[in-house]
UniProtKB/TrEMBL annotation:
Keywords: Hydrolase, Protease, Serine protease, Signal. Transmembrane segments: none annotated. It comes from the Bacteria. One of its GO terms (molecular function) is serine-type endopeptidase activity. PANTHER family: CEREVISIN-RELATED (PTHR43806:SF11), PEPTIDASE S8 (PTHR43806). InterPro entries: Peptidase_S8/S53_dom, Peptidase_S8/S53_dom_sf, Peptidase_S8_subtilisin-like. It comes from Pseudozobellia thermophila. GO terms for biological process: proteolysis. This is Subtilase family protein. The active site is at D167, H225, S412. Belongs to the peptidase S8 family. Residues 1-17 form the signal peptide.
Length: 465
């Protein structure tokens, strides 16, 4: 006999409706005590509900600079009136963040970018902030706990599938509520020595209050997005019995605000880890937003290459697949004055994920159609569609009679689901060249005619029931 269920709505919904409640059924284990009442705290997060708000904010006074090898960096800096600068501490010493007076004129800051790009051996790009969709109430974990100290860091292993999650960090303490916690965190300190950490890194930390984000090892999630994304990935891998390790890289703060600079530095860290041994198989990047289309243009002959494109190229050479979300505004990423960061980059190691409408009443229903909130690519920038809606994750809590159930809608979560699927393929097939791995992923899809002209080849990876 199964236990009785009580739905306790102790946490408010984000963009929820009565339909959301009707589609959430109680879940039990077969060995539940028949006299036990399981209490579920329900949360619904819908990225589409925030689709009208901007996601990218150009910095008025920050520029990212890339130097070609051998260029005198000091002499370049002396030609510009910057207040201070910062380097990525790990993985790429040829990239800097320049900070100018907050009152600098827009024409002047644009002039800095143009001068750098015309100069031999340098490139300048405007920095920008990225805003995640709010996920609603998320219990504030203690920020003074190191993941290294709680027994969740695994050993260095050539057998595990390793996935870096660039997001808001990870509330790893939730994994301690299980009866036998797994050592599932990637031991990055074994592969790279430039950050003082056993696993993961928080790129957002400004511990001196001077505006320089020097970072620290306290990557505990105080937002929720990264924890939810990671749980979708680990649920998929656990379901298939895959041995895996997760590298949490925190580039978004408690408010879901992050920066292009911190994203770059997190990728540089992955590159440094891979320089020791190609260890990171997949990068999950469930974020993005609109940027002027020229940001994605390929460099002309003789120019220093686009900074982000260069980072993607380096990871491609190392055999790391980058899976990113297409966005949730119902827009075409391939037309208009803006492209989508990251999915508009034409890099061979990117897979951009859109979302189809998942029928919760009849999952086998056809035709498969694009979800009205999912972005798409009429010229081929969105590679595949997974279910947009109704990703359900369940957490144990410190109270054995209480669980947290979260239902998630959005391409962030579709991308996470694909990262889990890709991980299962790597586990079963071994390491593959990027092109072969992508082809194996695409071979699992169904052709959905209604997705033609929006998703490459009308590809839909149908959710398993």
């Amino acid at each position: 006999m199964k236990a009785t269920a009580l739905l306790l709505l102790s946490l408010p919904f984000i963009a929820s409706s009565c339909d959301d409640l009707e589609n959430i059924d109680p879940i039990f284990d077969n060995d539940d005590d028949p006299n036990t009442t399981i209490v579920y705290d329900d949360i619904v997060v819908d990225e589409g509900a925030d689709s009208g708000n901007p996601k990218i904010f150009i910095s008025p006074n920050e520029v990212i600079v890339k130097y070609d090898p051998g260029v005198s960096q000091d002499s370049v800096r002396q030609d510009f009136p910057l207040l201070n600068y910062q380097k990525c501490d790990c993985g790429d010493t040829n990239i800097e963040l320049w900070v100018f007076d907050p009152g600098i004129d827009e024409l002047e800051i644009e002039g800095v970018v143009q001068r750098l790009s015309r100069r031999s051996g340098t490139r300048g790009e405007r920095s920008f902030d990225i805003q995640l969709t709010p996920v609603g109430p998320f219990p504030q974990p203690g920020q003074d706990v190191l993941a290294d100290t709680v027994g969740l860091v695994g050993p260095a292993s050539s057998l595990s599938v390793n996935i870096a999650v660039i997001d808001t960090g990870l509330d790893f303490k939730r994994y301690l509520n299980t009866e036998s916690p797994e050592k599932f965190l990637f031991p990055s300190g074994y592969y790279s020595y430039c950050y003082d950490t056993g696993t993961g890194w928080n790129f957002t930390a400004d511990n001196n209050g001077d505006g320089i984000r020097e970072g620290d090892p306290y990557f505990v999630d105080d937002n929720g997005h990264g924890t939810y994304v990671t749980k979708i990935i680990t649920d998929e891998l656990d379901k298939k019995g895959v041995e895996y390790q997760i590298l949490p890289l925190k580039v978004f703060d408690a408010n879901g605000r992050g920066s292009y600079w911190d994203v770059l530095c997190s990728l540089a860290y992955i590159k440094d880890i891979n320089n020791f041994h190609t260890a990171i198989d997949i990068v999950n990047a469930s974020f993005g937003g609109g940027l002027p289309r020229e940001f994605f243009d390929e460099s002309e002959a003789g120019e220093t290459e686009n900074i982000f494109a260069g980072m993607l190229e380096a990871l491609n050479d190392q055999g790391t697949l980058v899976i990113t979300s297409a966005g949730n505004k119902g827009e075409d990423n391939d037309t208009g004055i803006e492209g989508d960061f990251l999915s508009s980059f034409e890099s061979p190691n990117i897979i951009s994920v859109g979302g189809y409408e998942y029928d919760t009443i009849n999952p086998s229903a056809r035709p498969i159609t694009l979800h009205h909130f999912s972005n798409y690519g009429s010229e081929g920038s969105v590679d595949i569609a997974l279910a947009f809606n109704n990703y359900e994750i369940i957490y144990d809590t410190s109270d054995s009679l209480r669980k947290q159930r979260v239902t998630l809608h959005g391409t962030s979560y579709a991308a996470a689901a694909l990262s889990g699927k890709a991980g299962t393929l790597i586990d079963s097939l071994g390491s593959l060249p990027i092109e072969d791995l992508k082809n194996r992923i695409f071979s699992l899809t169904e052709h959905a005619p209604q997705l033609n002209g929006k998703i490459v080849d009308g590809r839909a990876l149908i959710r398993e029931e």
